């Protein structure tokens, strides 16, 4: 299966703390990958480096062969908006906007007209079990419903990769499991890959692969298949990557 995103020799220090001590990781097309490990082991730092939120001190990150760690902030910001989707622990929805406008927001930021963006946003509500909740504000939703709105918002731009950092950490266990199942399912049905940080061992049931992080390293023996030692210089050919399905309706 083709590789979508690769990290090579990623190092990140915060003062004397070595948050990442040379990590390599390859994410395949359509794959759901769970990152597990104790608090402070470097999971979020790894996710932030892979997602172009943070620049590693050393190493490379490649999206479909193109280096993203070397890009400037503006370019990385555009990349995050167009090719990546994000789900955080606390959905981080805008409280004053109805759910459908929260979902439409990434499209509007990408210059889709408000009407078109809201129309496309609404298509996600039924499949995610949110039918009838389009007009509710985040404060009028349960925690699980709010996270499903956040999942819709992450997927609405049809990104290549969804990054989720403890997306169910604020939910009770049953709701968390439902939400995680939906996240993996919706991501796969849309042809995207998923990187999810979680403390929940049950998450392996929904993911194709689990990697264990300890003290800034991937544990040998966990399923973190190392990428090829030399990064391949495959260019990114515009938006036609073969990763994303045709945009429906
Ligand atoms: N901005 C920062 N400034 C200083 N130290 C940081 C910063 N971000 C992370 N660290 C340190 O880097 C290490 C890895 O942090 P990271 O947030 O990646 O851990 P984590 O595995 O996500 O933990 P948790 O499960 O608690 O979220 C920790 O020792 C942390 O204190
Ligand atoms: Mg973290």
UniProtKB/TrEMBL annotation:
<protein>
    <submittedName>
        <fullName>ABC transporter ATP-binding protein</fullName>
    </submittedName>
</protein>
<dbReference type="InterPro" id="IPR027417">
    <property type="entry name" value="P-loop_NTPase"/>
</dbReference>
<keyword id="KW-0067">ATP-binding</keyword>
<dbReference type="GO" id="GO:0022857">
    <property type="term" value="F:transmembrane transporter activity"/>
</dbReference>
<keyword id="KW-0547">Nucleotide-binding</keyword>
<feature type="region of interest" description="Disordered">
    <location>
        <begin position="218"/>
        <end position="249"/>
    </location>
</feature>
<dbReference type="InterPro" id="IPR003439">
    <property type="entry name" value="ABC_transporter-like_ATP-bd"/>
</dbReference>
<dbReference type="InterPro" id="IPR017871">
    <property type="entry name" value="ABC_transporter-like_CS"/>
</dbReference>
<feature type="domain" description="ABC transporter">
    <location>
        <begin position="5"/>
        <end position="240"/>
    </location>
</feature>
<dbReference type="InterPro" id="IPR003593">
    <property type="entry name" value="AAA+_ATPase"/>
</dbReference>
<dbReference type="GO" id="GO:0005524">
    <property type="term" value="F:ATP binding"/>
</dbReference>
<dbReference type="InterPro" id="IPR015854">
    <property type="entry name" value="ABC_transpr_LolD-like"/>
</dbReference>
<keyword id="KW-0813">Transport</keyword>
<dbReference type="GO" id="GO:0005886">
    <property type="term" value="C:plasma membrane"/>
</dbReference>
<dbReference type="GO" id="GO:0016887">
    <property type="term" value="F:ATP hydrolysis activity"/>
</dbReference>
<dbReference type="InterPro" id="IPR017911">
    <property type="entry name" value="MacB-like_ATP-bd"/>
</dbReference>
<dbReference type="Pfam" id="PF00005">
    <property type="entry name" value="ABC_tran"/>
</dbReference>
């Amino acid at each position: 299966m083709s590789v979508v995103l690769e990290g090579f020799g990623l190092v990140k220090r915060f003062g004397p703390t070595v948050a990442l001590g040379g990590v390599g990781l390859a994410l395949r097309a359509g794959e759901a990958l769970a990152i597990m490990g104790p608090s402070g082991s470097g999971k979020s730092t790894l996710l932030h480096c892979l997602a172009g939120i943070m620049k590693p001190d050393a190493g490379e990150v490649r999206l479909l062969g193109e280096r993203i760690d070397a890009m400037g902030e503006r370019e990385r910001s555009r990349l995050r908006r167009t090719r990546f989707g994000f789900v955080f622990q606390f959905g981080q929805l805008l409280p004053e906007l109805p759910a459908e406008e929260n979902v439409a927001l990434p499209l509007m930021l990408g210059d889709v007209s408000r009407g078109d963006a809201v129309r496309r946003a609404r298509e996600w509500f039924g499949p995610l079990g949110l039918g009838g909740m389009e007009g509710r504000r985040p404060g009028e939703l349960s925690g699980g419903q709010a996270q499903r709105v956040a999942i819709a918002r992450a997927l609405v731009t049809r990104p290549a990769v969804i990054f989720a950092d403890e997306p169910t950490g604020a939910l009770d266990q049953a709701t968390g499991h439902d939400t995680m199942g939906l996240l993996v399912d919706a991501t796969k049905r849309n042809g995207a890959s998923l990187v999810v940080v979680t403390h929940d061992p049950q998450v392996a049931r929904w993911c194709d692969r689990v990697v264990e992080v300890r003290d800034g390293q991937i544990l040998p023996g966990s399923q973190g298949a190392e990428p090829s030692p030399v990064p391949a210089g495959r260019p990114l050919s515009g938006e036609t990557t073969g990763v994303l399905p045709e945009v429906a309706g």
